[in-house]
Amino acid sequence: MAIAAYRVSRVRRRDYDPPDSPTSVGYVRSSLARLADQENPLVLQCGRPFWPIDVTYETYGKLNSDRDNAILVCHALSGDAHAAGWDPDALEQGRPWRADRPGWWDSMIGPGKALDTNKYFVVCSNVLGSCYGTTGPSSTDPSSGKPYGSSFPVVTVGDWVRLEERLVTHLKIDKLKAVIGGSLGGQQALEWALAYPERVESAIVIGASARLSAQGLAFNAVGRYAIVNDPNFRGGDYYDGVPPRVGLSVARRLAHITYLSEESLEAKFGRRYRHGCGPSYGFSTEFEVESYLDHQGEKFVERFDANSYLCITRAMDYYDASDWGDGDLERALSRAKATFLLVSFSSDWLYTPAQMEQLALSLAKCEKRVTYVEIPSSAGHDAFLIETETLTEVVKAFLDGQTTKRLSPPLYSQIGL
Amino acid sequence: MAIAAYRVSRVRRRDYDPPDSPTSVGYVRSSLARLADQENPLVLQCGRPFWPIDVTYETYGKLNSDRDNAILVCHALSGDAHAAGWDPDALEQGRPWRADRPGWWDSMIGPGKALDTNKYFVVCSNVLGSCYGTTGPSSTDPSSGKPYGSSFPVVTVGDWVRLEERLVTHLKIDKLKAVIGGSLGGQQALEWALAYPERVESAIVIGASARLSAQGLAFNAVGRYAIVNDPNFRGGDYYDGVPPRVGLSVARRLAHITYLSEESLEAKFGRRYRHGCGPSYGFSTEFEVESYLDHQGEKFVERFDANSYLCITRAMDYYDASDWGDGDLERALSRAKATFLLVSFSSDWLYTPAQMEQLALSLAKCEKRVTYVEIPSSAGHDAFLIETETLTEVVKAFLDGQTTKRLSPPLYSQIGL
Hints:
The structure is a homodimer. By secondary structure, chain A is an alpha/beta fold. Chain A has two domains: about 30-210 and about 320-405, Rossmann fold (3-Layer(aba) Sandwich); about 230-310, Orthogonal Bundle (Rna Polymerase Sigma Factor, Chain: A), CATH 1.10.1740. The first copy, chain A, is about 30% helix and about 15% strand. Chain A is built from eleven helices and 14 strands. In chain A, the strands form four sheets. The first copy, chain A, has an eight-stranded mixed sheet with strand order 1-4-8-5-11-12-13-14, with helices on both faces. A two-stranded antiparallel sheet of chain A has the order 2-3. A two-stranded parallel sheet of chain A has the order 6-7. In chain A, α2 links the parallel β11 (about 180) and β12. The radius of gyration of chain A is 21 Å and the shape is globular.
C-alpha cells in the first residue's frame, strides 16, 4: 500500500506573446458575415428554419492560391472567435476581459506555433447561440425589435457545424486541411468529419469524446436549474432588467470544478485559509478555494449571457456522434474519411481518457487512420488550454504527417497510423 | 489499450426488514435529553457558551450490567438519530419520509446484524445544528421566542463529539465498545478517538478521511452560495416566510452527484431520454438523470432545513483531524488509544480510498492498531449506505476481534492487526 502521491502541478504563469512578438499574429479585428437569410435560412436540427444569422469570425495567416491550407479552429463552451492575437478594440467596445490577454488559444496559433500561420490559414468562428458576435439569444429579433430571449431556438453541435460549413464555403475553401478543437470544440471537429467527410483532411479532437457522460449531463442539469430558477431569469426574457447573475454564477462555479482536477485543486489551494490560520466560524468566503470560485463566478457573469449558457450546455448534452449511425457508434464513424488525431489528458474527468480511448478504438475498428495520445497532466479538463507545449509537439508532428512513434514512448500511448 | 470497462452496478432494491421481522429492532421512539443549560453550557469551538441544547437520540438493544457493550453510531450530513427500526409516529408527527422505510442504517443494526442488538447497546443521536430534533437553527431561541436562524452558532465536528460525550455520560457509560459512522459520521468516530482516547475501545471510520479535500470544499462552497443567494434566504431568517427552496435544491442536486460515481450514473441512467427517443429541443427535464436529480432535490427540500445544511457542510469543511497536532496528522493521531477499522469504497471520489490509505498509513506509523479495508464498489460515496452486506462481514469480524486476514484476499487490502 502506498501513500496517495499527490503530484504537485505548478500553476503556470503564462507569458503572453505581446502583439509585436515575432510569434504573435498581432492585432486582429473580427469579421462578420451573414450566412443565413430569408432566402437561405439554416434549417436547424429542431426543424425550425432560422434567419438571419450573422457569424463573427477571425482569420490568421494567409489562404494560399490552391486554397488548401485552411485550418478551422472550434471553440468550447465559453470561448469565442478571438482565438489568437490581440483585440485592438477591447476597451473601446466593452470587452475589457480581452484587453490584458490575447485570444484563448494564442499559445497554439501564430508564426512557428502548432497552427503555424506561416503555413496555414487559420479560421475561428463564434458558434450560433453564443453571446460573442454570432447571432444568439441576446441578439435582436428583427421580427419584434427585441432580444430573442426565450424565443431563441435550441441549437445543436450539428447546427454549429452546418453553419461553419457555410462560412468555409463563403471563404471559398473546398477542403479543410484540418478541423481542430478542445472540449465542445473537439466535438465539432468530430462532427465535421462525419457531416462533411469529403471536406475534412484531418480532424483533431482534444479533451472530448463521442458523447457526454451521465455525470456530465447531471452537472449541466444542476447549472441550468440554478439559472432558470433565478427569479431574475423571468423565463429567459430578462434583457430589459437585471440578468440572472446568481444562477449563472452558480452554474459557472460548479462547472469550473469539473474543469480542474482534484489534484490541481489540492496543489493550488489545498485547505488554506485566506486570512491567517483557522476558521472564522461563518459562512462567508474563507478558504482560498472558495475565494477562487467567487472570482471565477464574478468574472463570468460580467462577460457571459445566461441564455447562451443554457443554449450551449444543451448542445453539449445532446451531442452524440453515434446519432449518425442510429445509435451505433462504429456505423456512424464509418462515414468519416479524415485522418484523426485524438488527444486526452490523464486527469480530465469531464471527458475522460477512457471515453476517448473508446472513440479511438471504435475508429480503429472502422479502419480509420487514427492516432490516440493521452497526455499526462494534472490540469484536468482545462488542460487543452494549458498543456499547449505538449499539445504543440503532438499537433505539429501530426500535421507534418509524422507518426507519433517518434515521440518519447513513456509519454504516449497510441493506436493506428 | 483497453476499452473503458464499465462495470454494471445493479440498483439494489432493498427489501426492508418489516417491524415484526426477527432481525428488526421493531418500532422505536426517540428520546430527548437536555444536555446543556445555563448552569452547564456547551462552550463551542467558536468560543460561544451555548445553551439550552436538547439532544434527540435512539437506542437499540440493552446496556449490560457492566455498561461496557455500548456502540455509538454517528450519522452523516442529512441523517438523523433514527438509524434503525420503524418510526411509529412518522405520519402523525409530520415525518412522512420515514413512514415507508426503516432507519437509515437498519441493514446494519438489529438482532444478528453487524451491530448485533442481541450483544450491543446501540446509541445514535442527532447532531447539534441539524433539523431532526436536536437543537438547531430552526429551534426556538428562548431569549427571543423566535427561531434562531442567523443567530445560530457555527458548530464543528468537535462540538458534536463533545455533545455526544455528554449523552454517553448521561447514559452512565464510561467507555464505548465502539464508535462507528460513515462520511461525516466517520469523521465523528475519528474525532472521538482523538478527543476522548480513554473512552473509546475502537473507532470504525467508513467512507471518510482525516479532512475534506479542496475539491470537496469547492462543492460545498457552491451549494452554500446557491442557498445564501436565494432571495428567500433573507440572511437566514426566513422561518416566517417561504424557505430558500431553490438554493437548497441546487445544493442537494449538486451534492448528490458527488455521492454517486460516474460508473453508477452511467449504469443507472446513461444518456437515456425519459420519453421516447431523442431530444425535444428545450431546457426542461428530458434525460433520465435530470429527472433523478429533480426527484432528489424535491424530496430533500421537503425534509431538510437550509440553515442546517449550511451549518453541517461548514462543519464538514472545518474538520481536520490534524488540528489535534497543530497541523501534524501523525502527532494528532498519536493521542488515540483505540483500535481502528478504516473502510473505503473503490469508487468513492468525495472521500477517496487514497485519502483513507493516507490516514491508515499515518495511524500505522504511530503504531496504532489499524485495519484498512477498501471495498470494491461502483456505488460511490453512498456505498456506506448500500454495501451493507460486505460492510457487515468486515465490521462483524472486526468487532469479534478477528483479523480481516480471514476474509477473502482478493477483496481486501489491509495493514496492521
